[in-house]
Amino acid sequence: MNGRAFALAEAAEALVGARFRLHGRDPRTGLDCIGVLATAMAGIGRPVAVPNGYALRLADLAAFRPLAARFGFAEAVGDILPGDVLMFAVGPVQFHLAVAARDGLLVHAHAGLRRVVLGPAGADWRPAGHWRLLEQD
Q1: How far is Cα 114 from Cα 39, in angstroms, rounded to an integer?
Q2: Is residue 101 a contact partner of residue 9, using CB atoms and an 8 Å limit?
Q3: DSSP labels for the chain?
Q4: Between 20 and 30 A from 49 (CA), which of 39, 41, 85, 91?
Q5: What pLDDT tens digit does each residue of the chain (137 aa) get?
């Protein structure tokens, strides 16, 4: 197993319970799904500059896909492993990022519950992307 990816999963799990805030980048004041990923990446010593100011609704992921490679991720296929980053279509024009955790669960910022949670994917979430963190020195 990829040690950095597993560390990413642990760093994401440490954020469970943080408040939700759209465009949030600080666990003390609130995180959104991209904030969870950015904070977890910083937690493993790989800070990334993530987009901000985006709308809650988004029709096209084209602008987000190139960011994965820039942040050290490669597209993945097959089994989902702890530390993998997943994109889901959760509505007609709404996408959501989650970090895979242990036992098949996900860490994500839940707008409805107003906090970062550890749990399964929503029953109606459709996979839209799957990336794995590459090992780096």
Answers
A1: 17
A2: yes
A3: --HHHHHHHHHHHTTTTPBB-TT-EETTTEE-HHHHHHHHHHHTT-------S--S--S--TTTHHHHHHTTEEE--SS--TT-EEEEEEETTEEEEEEE-GGG-EEEEETTTTEEEEEPPPTT-EEEEEEEEPP--
A4: 91
A5: 578 889 999 999 999 999 999 989 999 999 999 999 999 999 999 998 877 666 555 556 666 677 788 889 999 999 999 999 999 988 887 888 999 999 999 999 999 999 999 999 999 999 999 999 998 74
Q: Distance between CA atoms of 128 and 95, rounded to whole angstroms?
A: 8
Residues in the chain: 137
Contact 39, 15 (CB under 8 A): yes
Whole-model pTM over 0.70: yes
- Distance (Å) of CA 101 to CA 42, 55, 63, 98: 17, 27, 26, 9
Q: Are 12 and 29 in contact (CB under 8 A)?
A: no
Q: Identify the bridge partners of residue 100 per DSSP, sorted by sequence position.
A: 106
Say if residues 86 and 98 touch (Cβ distance below 8 Å): yes
